[in-house]
Amino acid sequence: MKQLLSCFLSLKTALCALMLLPALANSADSAVFLQYHHVSEHTPRSTSVTPDQLKQHLDYLDDNGFSVKNSVDVVDAIRDGKPLPDKTVVITFDDAYLNIYENAFPLLKEKGYPFTIFVAIEPVDKGFSQFLSWEQLKEMGQHGATIANHSITHSHMVVKHPDETRQAWINRNRDEIQATEARIKEQTGQNVKLFAWPFGEANPELQQLLSSMGYVGFGQQSGVVGPLSDFTLLPRYPMAADYAEMRGFRTKVNSLPLPVKKQQPASAMVTDDNLKPSLTLELAKGDFQKNQLQCYASNAGEIPVTWLDDEKTRFTTATPDSLPVGRSRYNCTAPSMDGRRYYWYSHQWLRLKKDGTAID
């Protein structure tokens, strides 16, 4: 912006404007975050991509004008209103599996791509054979890896222990986040205050806690990070199983954030008296086709969209079938005006078991 201002204040305003137009046309205020777990042919398909699939993903980014950026830099730019290159992508891995070092790291290092590993530290500290060591994490940190917080135990943080008070539950989660961050700093020197919710599960109380601690939080709901995003629960596209196939990958990395100004409800929690929850969204203006907006539920496929005003700024949607125990999603998308890209928003729901616990 300083360059733009000085240029327009100069005597060569017209020439400057012409020179700056290409840069402005190729700037953006959003980024796609990708979430991986395993990179292996021998791990559960539901949380895995093969090394060949990851190579296809990285080659596509390399061959099609994408900018792969550091997570901290991208988050700071979006929050501060600074432009990013169009088609900016951030690569993240959860849980610190050894196969990240064995199979992903060589591919990323060859490309010179930065990436983030969200570490649940207990298996690392205990030296579990299928997990990274601190030495491997430090080595990757020297080659573009950001090492970030994923809790100690990777537990369901929304679940209270039996007879645990609300304050004790809050304090326990605060202590776990702080202890993890301290251990990461001790072992790697990094202290970036990015946190990935285990299982992508959060609720407003925990999100408020995270914000008060100065952290940015990441979920596992699909979508694109933009200036209107909730920075305690930023979206990432999960890459595994059928969701990692190239056709879907191309659509997702080219997508844009559906500009959601307000959402009701704010919470992911599903109660027994409301097993078919409605999601109401209020949209800001954007370059998308409102008439083509569609929503989908993970348990029911396409679900109806009801506009609440003539201007089509507010709509509601709901599943016709009760959400199952566990995690579910509503995804809402609309094509851009030129039909080349999709605007995307996702909300994750969480229904606990009758005993108040969650399923993995």
Automatic annotation (TrEMBL):
Its main location: secreted. Residues 1-27 form the signal peptide. Keywords: Signal. One of its GO terms (molecular function) is hydrolase activity, acting on carbon-nitrogen (but not peptide) bonds. It is found in: Secreted. CDD domains: CE4_DAC_u4_5s. Residues 265-334 form the Ig-like domain. Transmembrane segments: none annotated. InterPro entries: Glyco_hydro/deAcase_b/a-brl (IPR011330), Ig-like_dom (IPR007110), NODB_dom (IPR002509), Polysacch_Deacetylase (IPR051398). PANTHER family: POLY-BETA-1,6-N-ACETYL-D-GLUCOSAMINE N-DEACETYLASE, PTHR34216. This is NodB homology domain-containing protein. It comes from Endozoicomonas montiporae.
